Amino acid sequence: MRDCLFILLVMFTTVGCHNKQSLQSHIEEYQERMANVLDVANQNSLKTSLPPYPSIKDLKQNLPVTTIKLFEFYTLKHCELYSLVAERNTSLGNLQLPSTRYIYERHLIDALNQCLIDTLEPKLQEKLTEWQQVKTEQLPLVWADLMQLSSETKYGFSTNVGLVEGNERDGLSQIKETLSYLLQLNQNEQVNSAALEQHLQTLMNNPLPAKLWLSQRVLADNLQHSTKWLLQNTQSLQCSGNASNKKMEYLTNVFQQFFIEKIQPIASQINHYQYQLGPIFENMTANLYLSPSFKDYIKQFHQQGFENYQAEMQQHIQFWQSLFKRCNIKPGQR
Q: Under 8 Å CB-to-CB from 10, ≥6 apart: which residues?
C-alpha cells in the first residue's frame, strides 16, 4: 500500500495552480517559515540560471554558396527563377535571417523545378538539374540554421526570464503546436512565410522550454539545499514535550501549506509539461542535421536536468516521510 504522505501529495496536485505568486516566491516563503519555526538563520538564497546557449560558430552549418555566372543568369529570363536569383545578386542564397533564408530556399527549389519543365535547351537543363540537386540536399541544413540560429528559438530555449506558473498561461498547447510545426517544416509541401514567422513569434512570446528547464533547475537546487539544511537543523528536535510538540505541529503546517499546497502543484505541472514535450525534444536530439552542440544543450535539460530535479524532489519528500514516521505524525489529520 502507498503511505499516507504519498496519498496526500496526490490529493494536492490540483490545488493552488492559479496562485499569483511565482514558484520562486513560494520556495523563499517555504524556507523562511521553516527557519522561523526552528528559530535558526534562514538558508542563503540561491541564484539559479540556465547555462549559456551554444555559440554561433558551434551551431552554424558550413553551407557553400552556390553561384551562377552572368551569362547563365541571362539564359533564365523565361523562368521565375530569374527574378529570384536577381534578388540575391546572382548568388543562389546569400546572407539573410534564418527564417527568410529558409523560405527563399524553398521558393528557389520550386522555381528550379518549374524552370526545368519550361526549359528545352539540354545544356541549361543539365545545369538546372545540378542546381536543383545541390539546393535540395542543402535544404535540411538551412532548416537546421533556422532551428538553431533564429533569435526566437535561442530565446525560447535559453532565456532566464520567468518560471512555470502551473496554469493555462504557460501555453503548453501553443508551444507543442509551434515546436511540432518547426520540426515538420521540411515535410510540408507548402510553407507560408507568415505562418512560419507567427510560430517563431509564439516561441519568443512564450518561451516555455526555457521556463520549464529553469523551473526544474530552481527546484532541484533549492530542494537539495533545503533538504541538507533541514537534516542539520532537525537532528536535535524531539518528538515529545510541549515545546517540541509545538515545533513539530508548526513544521507540519509549513510543509502542508507551502510545499504541498503551493510548490507541489506547480511541480506536478512541470512533470506534465515534461512528458508532453518530451517526444519533441527526443526528435530534436535524434535529428541528423542539427549540430551536436545544440543537441547536447537540449539533452542536458531534457534528460539529465529532469532526472536531477526528480531525484532532489524525491530526497526532499523522503526527509519529511522519515521525520513524520519518527514522530508518528500523519499529515493532514487533526
A: none
For 256, the grid coordinates are 502542508
Identify whether 119 is part of a domain: yes
Burial classification of residue 176, based on how many CB atoms lie within 10 Å of its CB (0-12 exposed, 13-18 middle, 19 or more buried): middle
In this structure, is residue 200 part of a structural domain? no
Do residue 311 and residue 249 come from a single domain? yes
Per-residue pLDDT in tens (0 to 9) along the chain, 334 residues: 444 443 344 333 333 333 345 899 999 999 999 999 999 988 887 889 999 999 988 998 887 777 777 777 778 888 888 788 877 764 554 557 899 999 999 999 999 999 889 888 888 888 889 889 999 999 999 999 999 999 999 999 999 999 999 999 999 999 999 999 999 999 888 889 999 999 999 999 999 999 999 999 999 999 999 999 999 998 888 887 676 678 888 999 999 999 999 999 999 999 999 999 999 999 999 999 999 999 999 999 999 999 999 999 999 999 999 999 988 887 765 4
Q: Domain check: are 17 and 67 in the same one? A: no
Taking the model in full, what pTM does it have? 0.86
Q: How many domains does the chain have?
A: 2
Same domain, yes or no: 210 and 281: yes
d(CA 15, CA 4): 18
Range of the domain at 147: 56-151
Asked if 63 contacts 138 with a C-beta cutoff of 8 angstroms, the reply is yes
